[in-house]
Amino acid sequence: MNTEPLVLIAKRLMCCPTAPYYEAGVRAEAERICSEHGLDYAQDAYGNLIVRWQKVSRRRPLVLAAHLDHPGFHIVGSISPGQVRATFKGGVSEEYLRTGVPLRLMPGNYRAVLGKRLSSEKEFEIRFDTTVEPAPAFGVWDVEEFALRAGKIHGRVCDDLIGVAAILATLIELKQARAKVNVIGFLSRAEEVGFHGALAAAQSKQLPKNALIISLETSRELPPVKMGAGVIIRVGDRTSIFDSAATRFLTETAAELQKTVKAFAFQRALMSGGTCEATAFQEFGYQTAAVCVALGNYHNCASGKRIAAEFVSVTDALQMVKLLVAASRQMQHYDCLVARLPKRLMQLARVARTSLRKSS
After folding, report:
1. Which CATH number characterizes residue 331's domain?
2. Domain count, the chain
3. 46, 114, 219, 346: least CB-packed within 10 angstroms?
4. Is residue 120 part of a domain?
5. DSSP states of 244-292
6. What is the pLDDT of residues 206-244, one digit of tens each?
7. Where do runs of H (alpha helix) occur along the chain?
8. Is the pTM of this model over 0.85?
9. Domain residue limits at 213
10. Is 225 helix (H, G, I), strand (E, B) or coil?
11. Looking at the domain assignment, is residue 322 inside a domain?
């Protein structure tokens, strides 16, 4: 078993079933992890979890954001003994929502199967044993919760509990090193139904307005990125291009890290497989960047219209933590790092003007 803190944290989180608005179990596990490591945490008015390691509170804060939920079913009513009505919440194509797909109902972890469609609004019948008690509240896919095979983490909820695990691993490492940084972890609810937790926090201005927010995700593997080729600095998503200066800060930090950690690798790409919380925060005026790792079987959608476990590269996820730790430490040098490109361009401009005059 890989004993890297990130992997151990990911296992604990991923064994907690979650769905939009049903994140209490995984949030409680995240709180236990924080308590074990002496990290300050609190829930906001909307149930988002905020974790802090702020040793230099006067310094500009870095906010690391990820979400606690994953697509799943809300039980909305009873049809008959052993049958309930449920609505699906999250982005999964119609062809995967097929009769007979195995499910688990919560609380209780009871076996069930997806029944016939009841309406055009992703409303379905779910069938299960008539002796189920207590009454189920939500449902998830019946696939493995966590497994480590051939250098990859497999599980029902890599998206976005790998991001949550990366935040906790980063904060734990910074605390153990007594790092003089100002870092806030923001673990949001109900991202899969329209960034509800992030939007509530952004609109209520509970996060510092001068913060740099980095949105963390697992994102569908699309060319040119490759799983196993390193953490991805995400320049944008399906909807938005993120802040140029903030993205440059991450790129410069990654390049510096590469000089001292030879095994560190990173990629830089527009990840257009979906829209992430960076777009939501950016539209509310926050300076925002994003980091992700390549994801297989996005939202559990595998080849052949099968529902299967998601998977990510362990190496990519570990490199995400390395980049976040480095970025946390480099925040005090943000202006200097971001200014490197303009300085290089000014030098080139002087050379260009001289060369052009001589040849005119």
Report:
1. 3.40.630.10
2. 1
3. 346
4. no
5. HHHHHHHHHHHHHHHHH-TT--EEEEE-TTS--HHHHHHHTT-EEEEEE
6. 999 999 999 999 999 999 999 999 999 999 999 999 999
7. 5-14, 24-36, 161-176, 196-203, 244-260, 277-283, 314-330, 334-338, 340-359
8. yes
9. 5-70+145-338
10. coil
11. yes
